[in-house]
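Whether sequence alone determines local backbone shape is best considered at the level of individual chains. For completeness, the protein is quoted in full, as a sequence line and a line of structure tokens:
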Amino acid sequence: MQRAMYVKAEKQENPEMMLEFYEKYPESNLAMNALYSAAEMLYKNSKFEKAIETFNKLIEQFPNDSMAINANYYVAACYQELKRFEDAIAAYKAFVKNYPKHELAPEVTFNLATTAFQIKNFPEAIFYYERILEKYPDSQYANNSMYNSALAYTELGKHDDAIKIYRNFMVKFGEDDKSKGLKAYIAQIYFEQKRYEEALKAYEDVYLTGTDDEKIQALYTMGSIYGTTENLDMQIATYNRLIDVKPADNVYRLNGLIDLAGKYEEKQDWKNAVRIYEIIKTSNGTKEYVDFAVNRIPTIMQAYPDVFKTAAPEPKK
């Protein structure tokens, strides 16, 4: 009779029936399983408040069983789902303190760090992310812990610490998708901090190793830096490097070439200005860029006809 009721509740995934079983047969050898199953079903059904109540009842009634350890984990997870982050953090901390060698300890520590990150407690997030790297370096959470600790340092404005970790991440977890674009991100950090010399070196590295789009954006930003630092010759030379890169219709490439043509106009180097506008005209870029180039070419050539005169051929003797 007892087992039939338990099996029926399990088959129907009915938490209320499981709780009814527990209340009716508290001495049964299936009582603890019924309580745990009911709590787990409630969790899966997003009934987190009731799940917390049920898991806590299991912890109270069966404190020394392995299911009680899992129940502690679920209580913390329920608090996190309810966005009761301080309660979740307290529950996660209790777990890692009481069960540091449990198989769930790496996951719980990661969840603890991530919850601290969510509420912008970045120093505590860093502490627990680094604990994972120290205590569980071979766990599946090591790569995300290293990466997220760098994000936390960035949030704290500790950019050099973040950059150091990002570089270590690329060495240790180079195959991870998050490694893609990190060189460009490091360069961007330097750029935003107005550390232009370091930014230029970082962007040059991106140009040498990045994707086509990253290379183009690197060249464009390098040209902008030279413009900001009033190094016109290097700005022109850098923008000229955009001529041969692809895809030809990349927005950063076209912006850089528009700037380059403008610089040639400022120098009254009309032939080079027209040369660059001709490149833009044939780029298959958006209409805005192409139309601008198409309009500038005749405007310049009509304003300075002598520059564009074709020399008369030598008479034949």
About this structure: The two ends are 121 Å apart (CA to CA).
